Protein backbone atom coordinates (compact mmCIF):
# COMPACT_ATOMS: atom_id res chain seq x y z
CA UNK A 1 0.00 0.00 0.00
CA UNK A 2 1.54 3.30 -1.09
CA UNK A 3 1.29 6.11 1.44
CA UNK A 4 -0.57 8.97 -0.24
CA UNK A 5 1.20 11.78 1.63
CA UNK A 6 4.63 10.36 0.81
CA UNK A 7 3.59 9.99 -2.82
CA UNK A 8 2.60 13.67 -3.00
CA UNK A 9 5.76 14.78 -1.21
CA UNK A 10 7.96 12.84 -3.61
CA UNK A 11 6.67 14.70 -6.66
CA UNK A 12 5.99 18.12 -5.12
CA UNK A 13 7.59 21.20 -6.73
CA UNK A 14 7.58 23.13 -3.47
CA UNK A 15 11.37 23.09 -3.02
CA UNK A 16 12.22 24.10 -6.59
CA UNK A 17 10.04 26.22 -8.85
CA UNK A 18 9.92 25.02 -12.45
CA UNK A 19 8.12 25.93 -15.67
CA UNK A 20 6.98 24.21 -18.84
CA UNK A 21 5.36 25.44 -22.03
CA UNK A 22 1.97 23.78 -22.50
CA UNK A 23 -0.59 23.51 -25.26
CA UNK A 24 -3.12 26.33 -25.53
CA UNK A 25 -5.75 24.85 -27.83
CA UNK A 26 -8.10 27.82 -27.80
CA UNK A 27 -7.79 31.53 -27.08
CA UNK A 28 -11.00 33.35 -28.00
CA UNK A 29 -12.19 36.90 -27.48
CA UNK A 30 -15.93 37.42 -27.05
CA UNK A 31 -17.20 40.97 -27.53
CA UNK A 32 -20.53 42.77 -27.74
CA UNK A 33 -23.17 44.36 -25.58
CA UNK A 34 -24.64 40.94 -24.70
CA UNK A 35 -21.32 39.17 -24.12
CA UNK A 36 -21.70 38.93 -20.35
CA UNK A 37 -25.28 37.63 -20.34
CA UNK A 38 -24.54 35.23 -23.19
CA UNK A 39 -21.52 33.65 -21.49
CA UNK A 40 -23.37 33.59 -18.17
CA UNK A 41 -25.97 31.34 -19.80
CA UNK A 42 -23.36 29.00 -21.29
CA UNK A 43 -20.70 28.60 -18.60
CA UNK A 44 -21.03 26.55 -15.40
CA UNK A 45 -19.29 29.13 -13.23
CA UNK A 46 -20.56 32.51 -12.03
CA UNK A 47 -19.23 35.39 -14.16
CA UNK A 48 -21.10 38.51 -12.99
CA UNK A 49 -18.62 41.17 -11.78
CA UNK A 50 -20.70 42.00 -8.71
CA UNK A 51 -20.28 38.44 -7.44
CA UNK A 52 -16.87 37.18 -8.55
CA UNK A 53 -13.45 38.40 -9.64
CA UNK A 54 -12.32 38.84 -13.26
CA UNK A 55 -10.82 35.35 -13.72
CA UNK A 56 -12.95 32.21 -13.33
CA UNK A 57 -12.58 28.49 -14.08
CA UNK A 58 -15.51 26.37 -15.18
CA UNK A 59 -17.10 24.04 -17.71
CA UNK A 60 -19.03 23.95 -20.93
CA UNK A 61 -21.65 21.28 -20.27
CA UNK A 62 -24.14 19.39 -22.38
CA UNK A 63 -27.84 19.53 -21.59
CA UNK A 64 -27.31 16.26 -19.69
CA UNK A 65 -24.67 17.90 -17.48
CA UNK A 66 -21.79 16.01 -19.10
CA UNK A 67 -18.44 17.72 -19.66
CA UNK A 68 -17.95 19.15 -23.16
CA UNK A 69 -14.75 20.92 -22.08
CA UNK A 70 -13.32 23.32 -19.53
CA UNK A 71 -11.87 26.83 -19.71
CA UNK A 72 -10.80 29.93 -17.85
CA UNK A 73 -12.77 33.07 -18.69
CA UNK A 74 -11.18 36.48 -18.11
CA UNK A 75 -13.28 39.65 -18.00
CA UNK A 76 -11.40 42.60 -19.51
CA UNK A 77 -14.42 44.89 -19.51
CA UNK A 78 -18.21 44.64 -19.64
CA UNK A 79 -18.05 44.08 -23.40
CA UNK A 80 -14.76 42.17 -23.76
CA UNK A 81 -14.19 38.65 -22.43
CA UNK A 82 -11.35 36.23 -23.12
CA UNK A 83 -11.62 32.44 -23.08
CA UNK A 84 -8.59 30.18 -22.64
CA UNK A 85 -8.92 26.40 -22.97
CA UNK A 86 -6.45 23.55 -23.01
CA UNK A 87 -9.13 20.90 -23.55
CA UNK A 88 -11.03 22.18 -26.60
CA UNK A 89 -9.77 23.27 -29.98
CA UNK A 90 -10.58 26.80 -31.06
CA UNK A 91 -12.70 25.42 -33.90
CA UNK A 92 -14.78 23.23 -31.59
CA UNK A 93 -15.28 26.02 -29.05
CA UNK A 94 -16.22 28.63 -31.68
CA UNK A 95 -18.74 26.23 -33.21
CA UNK A 96 -20.19 25.47 -29.79
CA UNK A 97 -20.65 29.13 -28.86
CA UNK A 98 -21.93 30.29 -32.23
CA UNK A 99 -24.53 27.53 -32.29
CA UNK A 100 -26.24 29.24 -29.32
CA UNK A 101 -26.04 32.82 -30.62
CA UNK A 102 -29.50 33.75 -31.90
CA UNK A 103 -30.37 37.44 -31.48
CA UNK A 104 -27.49 38.30 -29.17
CA UNK A 105 -25.09 41.15 -29.80
CA UNK A 106 -22.09 38.83 -29.50
CA UNK A 107 -19.03 38.26 -31.68
CA UNK A 108 -16.60 35.36 -31.16
CA UNK A 109 -13.09 35.67 -32.61
CA UNK A 110 -10.24 33.16 -32.62
CA UNK A 111 -6.90 34.64 -31.47
CA UNK A 112 -5.18 31.37 -30.59
CA UNK A 113 -2.27 31.96 -32.97
CA UNK A 114 -1.27 35.13 -31.07
CA UNK A 115 -0.64 33.53 -27.69
CA UNK A 116 1.45 30.91 -25.91
CA UNK A 117 0.95 29.32 -22.50
CA UNK A 118 3.19 28.05 -19.70
CA UNK A 119 2.55 26.21 -16.46
CA UNK A 120 4.68 27.06 -13.44
CA UNK A 121 4.81 25.23 -10.11
CA UNK A 122 6.64 25.63 -6.83
CA UNK A 123 6.97 27.73 -3.73
CA UNK A 124 7.86 30.95 -5.59
CA UNK A 125 4.76 31.07 -7.77
CA UNK A 126 2.47 33.14 -5.53
CA UNK A 127 5.04 35.93 -5.11
CA UNK A 128 6.31 35.93 -8.71
CA UNK A 129 2.95 35.96 -10.52
CA UNK A 130 1.63 39.46 -9.56
CA UNK A 131 5.09 41.00 -10.06
CA UNK A 132 5.34 39.52 -13.55
CA UNK A 133 1.89 40.81 -14.49
CA UNK A 134 2.76 44.31 -13.24
CA UNK A 135 6.12 44.38 -15.02
CA UNK A 136 4.57 43.16 -18.27
CA UNK A 137 1.85 45.84 -18.13
CA UNK A 138 4.39 48.56 -17.29
CA UNK A 139 6.41 47.58 -20.37
CA UNK A 140 3.31 47.90 -22.56
CA UNK A 141 2.82 44.17 -23.01
CA UNK A 142 -0.30 42.05 -22.74
CA UNK A 143 -0.35 38.94 -20.61
CA UNK A 144 -2.60 36.99 -18.27
CA UNK A 145 -1.81 34.72 -15.38
CA UNK A 146 -3.76 32.99 -12.62
CA UNK A 147 -3.24 30.42 -9.90
CA UNK A 148 -4.85 27.18 -10.95
CA UNK A 149 -8.28 26.22 -9.62
CA UNK A 150 -6.75 22.98 -8.34
CA UNK A 151 -3.11 23.88 -7.72
CA UNK A 152 -0.30 21.41 -7.29
CA UNK A 153 1.05 21.07 -3.74
CA UNK A 154 3.31 24.07 -3.17
CA UNK A 155 1.40 26.20 -5.68
CA UNK A 156 0.96 26.30 -9.46
CA UNK A 157 -0.26 28.76 -12.07
CA UNK A 158 -0.94 29.12 -15.77
CA UNK A 159 0.26 32.15 -17.71
CA UNK A 160 -0.54 33.33 -21.24
CA UNK A 161 1.57 35.81 -23.23
CA UNK A 162 2.87 36.48 -26.72
CA UNK A 163 6.48 35.75 -25.75
CA UNK A 164 8.23 33.67 -23.07
CA UNK A 165 8.66 35.48 -19.76
CA UNK A 166 12.14 36.33 -18.45
CA UNK A 167 12.39 33.32 -16.17
CA UNK A 168 14.35 33.67 -12.91
CA UNK A 169 17.79 32.09 -13.30
CA UNK A 170 17.12 29.55 -10.57
CA UNK A 171 13.96 28.25 -12.29
CA UNK A 172 14.80 25.21 -14.46
CA UNK A 173 12.52 23.97 -17.21
CA UNK A 174 10.56 20.89 -16.16
CA UNK A 175 9.61 17.96 -18.35
CA UNK A 176 6.05 17.09 -19.22
CA UNK A 177 6.50 13.87 -17.25
CA UNK A 178 7.46 15.78 -14.09
CA UNK A 179 4.28 17.83 -14.20
CA UNK A 180 2.20 14.73 -14.89
CA UNK A 181 3.80 12.86 -12.00
CA UNK A 182 3.06 15.72 -9.60
CA UNK A 183 -0.51 16.13 -10.87
CA UNK A 184 -1.44 12.45 -10.75
CA UNK A 185 0.28 11.85 -7.41
CA UNK A 186 -1.82 14.70 -5.97
CA UNK A 187 -4.99 13.27 -7.52
CA UNK A 188 -5.70 16.35 -9.67
CA UNK A 189 -7.83 15.52 -12.73
CA UNK A 190 -7.42 17.00 -16.19
CA UNK A 191 -10.00 17.49 -18.91
CA UNK A 192 -10.46 15.54 -21.17
CA UNK A 193 -7.90 12.92 -20.08
CA UNK A 194 -9.63 12.11 -16.78
CA UNK A 195 -13.00 13.79 -17.18
CA UNK A 196 -14.35 13.93 -20.69
CA UNK A 197 -17.34 13.42 -22.88
CA UNK A 198 -19.84 11.31 -20.98
CA UNK A 199 -18.56 12.27 -17.52
CA UNK A 200 -19.92 14.60 -14.82
CA UNK A 201 -17.84 17.26 -12.99
CA UNK A 202 -18.91 15.70 -9.67
CA UNK A 203 -17.28 12.39 -10.57
CA UNK A 204 -13.87 14.04 -10.24
CA UNK A 205 -14.81 16.42 -7.45
CA UNK A 206 -14.48 19.38 -9.81
CA UNK A 207 -17.91 20.78 -9.01
CA UNK A 208 -16.28 22.39 -5.96
CA UNK A 209 -14.08 24.63 -8.13
CA UNK A 210 -15.87 24.80 -11.48
CA UNK A 211 -19.63 24.82 -10.88
CA UNK A 212 -21.84 27.53 -9.39
CA UNK A 213 -25.07 26.43 -7.71
CA UNK A 214 -26.34 29.98 -7.16
CA UNK A 215 -26.05 31.68 -10.55
CA UNK A 216 -29.34 30.69 -12.13
CA UNK A 217 -29.88 29.13 -15.54
CA UNK A 218 -27.11 27.86 -17.82
CA UNK A 219 -26.74 24.87 -20.08
CA UNK A 220 -26.66 21.75 -17.89
CA UNK A 221 -27.76 23.63 -14.75
CA UNK A 222 -30.77 21.40 -14.00
CA UNK A 223 -28.59 18.30 -13.80
CA UNK A 224 -26.02 20.10 -11.62
CA UNK A 225 -28.78 21.21 -9.23
CA UNK A 226 -30.25 17.71 -9.05
CA UNK A 227 -26.86 16.16 -8.25
CA UNK A 228 -26.26 18.81 -5.61
CA UNK A 229 -29.59 17.93 -4.03
CA UNK A 230 -28.98 14.17 -4.14
CA UNK A 231 -25.41 14.55 -2.90
CA UNK A 232 -23.99 11.49 -4.66
CA UNK A 233 -22.66 10.19 -7.98
CA UNK A 234 -22.27 6.66 -9.28
CA UNK A 235 -18.57 6.93 -10.13
CA UNK A 236 -15.52 8.56 -8.57
CA UNK A 237 -12.01 9.31 -9.75
CA UNK A 238 -9.34 7.62 -7.62
CA UNK A 239 -5.55 7.38 -7.54
CA UNK A 240 -3.97 4.03 -8.44
CA UNK A 241 -0.44 2.68 -8.80
CA UNK A 242 0.98 -0.43 -10.38
CA UNK A 243 4.25 -2.27 -10.94
CA UNK A 244 6.09 -2.53 -14.26
CA UNK A 245 5.65 -0.53 -17.43
CA UNK A 246 2.96 2.08 -17.87
CA UNK A 247 -0.09 0.46 -19.55
CA UNK A 248 0.31 1.54 -23.16
CA UNK A 249 -3.08 0.84 -24.71
CA UNK A 250 -5.84 3.42 -24.48
CA UNK A 251 -8.51 1.17 -22.97
CA UNK A 252 -7.49 -0.42 -19.67
CA UNK A 253 -10.30 -1.85 -17.55
CA UNK A 254 -10.26 -2.35 -13.77
CA UNK A 255 -11.58 -5.61 -12.38
CA UNK A 256 -12.30 -7.18 -9.02
CA UNK A 257 -12.82 -10.89 -9.56
CA UNK A 258 -15.30 -11.30 -12.39
CA UNK A 259 -16.66 -7.78 -12.04
CA UNK A 260 -15.54 -4.78 -14.10
CA UNK A 261 -15.42 -1.86 -11.68
CA UNK A 262 -13.92 0.96 -13.76
CA UNK A 263 -11.31 2.13 -16.25
CA UNK A 264 -7.87 3.68 -16.11
CA UNK A 265 -7.60 7.24 -17.39
CA UNK A 266 -4.32 9.21 -16.98
CA UNK A 267 -1.15 7.26 -16.34
CA UNK A 268 2.57 8.11 -16.09
CA UNK A 269 5.82 6.40 -15.16
CA UNK A 270 6.51 6.69 -11.45
CA UNK A 271 9.33 5.59 -9.14
CA UNK A 272 11.25 2.32 -8.67
CA UNK A 273 9.70 0.70 -11.72
CA UNK A 274 6.16 1.65 -10.80
CA UNK A 275 3.58 3.78 -12.57
CA UNK A 276 0.87 6.14 -11.32
CA UNK A 277 -2.63 6.67 -12.64
CA UNK A 278 -6.10 8.06 -12.16
CA UNK A 279 -9.07 5.76 -12.68
CA UNK A 280 -12.82 6.28 -12.77
CA UNK A 281 -14.51 3.56 -10.73
CA UNK A 282 -18.05 2.55 -9.83
CA UNK A 283 -18.90 3.50 -6.26
CA UNK A 284 -21.42 0.67 -5.99
CA UNK A 285 -19.33 -2.06 -7.61
CA UNK A 286 -15.83 -1.36 -6.27
CA UNK A 287 -14.74 -2.63 -2.87
CA UNK A 288 -12.34 0.14 -1.84
CA UNK A 289 -10.71 -2.08 0.79
CA UNK A 290 -9.44 -4.56 -1.83
CA UNK A 291 -6.91 -4.32 -4.66
CA UNK A 292 -8.11 -4.06 -8.25
CA UNK A 293 -6.72 -5.86 -11.28
CA UNK A 294 -6.02 -4.30 -14.66
CA UNK A 295 -6.73 -5.87 -18.03
CA UNK A 296 -5.55 -4.19 -21.20
CA UNK A 297 -7.23 -3.99 -24.57
CA UNK A 298 -10.10 -6.34 -25.34
CA UNK A 299 -9.80 -8.35 -22.14
CA UNK A 300 -7.63 -11.18 -23.53
CA UNK A 301 -4.38 -9.79 -22.09
CA UNK A 302 -3.30 -11.07 -18.66
CA UNK A 303 -3.98 -9.02 -15.56
CA UNK A 304 -1.23 -6.67 -14.36
CA UNK A 305 0.04 -7.06 -10.81
CA UNK A 306 -1.29 -4.41 -8.44
CA UNK A 307 1.03 -2.88 -5.86
CA UNK A 308 -1.36 -0.36 -4.30
CA UNK A 309 -4.95 -0.62 -3.19
CA UNK A 310 -7.58 1.85 -4.30
CA UNK A 311 -8.87 3.34 -1.06
CA UNK A 312 -11.48 5.96 -0.14
CA UNK A 313 -8.67 8.29 0.97
CA UNK A 314 -7.37 8.30 -2.62
CA UNK A 315 -10.65 9.62 -4.03
CA UNK A 316 -10.29 13.03 -5.62
Automatic annotation (TrEMBL):
Name under which the protein is recorded: GCVT N-terminal domain-containing protein
A Pfam family per the record: GCV_T
Domain GCVT N-terminal: 22-133
Lineage, broadest ranks: Bacteria, Pseudomonadati, Verrucomicrobiota, Opitutia, Opitutales
Gene Ontology BP terms: iron-sulfur cluster assembly
Membrane-crossing segments per the record: none
Keywords attached to this entry: Transit peptide
Gene3D superfamilies (alphabetical): Probable tRNA modification gtpase trme, domain 1
Domain of life: Bacteria
Presence of keyword Transit peptide: yes
InterPro entries: GCVT_N, TrmE/GcvT-like, YgfZ/GCV_T_CS, YgfZ/GcvT
Transit peptide among keywords: yes
Species: Synoicihabitans lomoniglobus
Amino acid sequence: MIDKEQLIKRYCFAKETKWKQVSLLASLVVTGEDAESFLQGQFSQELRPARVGPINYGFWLTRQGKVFGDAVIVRESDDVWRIFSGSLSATALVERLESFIIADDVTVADETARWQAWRIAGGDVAAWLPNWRSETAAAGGTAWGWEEAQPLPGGSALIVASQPPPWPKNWPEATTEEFEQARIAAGIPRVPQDLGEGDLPQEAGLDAVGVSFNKGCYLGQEVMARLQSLGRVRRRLVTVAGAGDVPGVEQVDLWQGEKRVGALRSRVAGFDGAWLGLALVSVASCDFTRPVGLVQGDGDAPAIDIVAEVTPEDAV
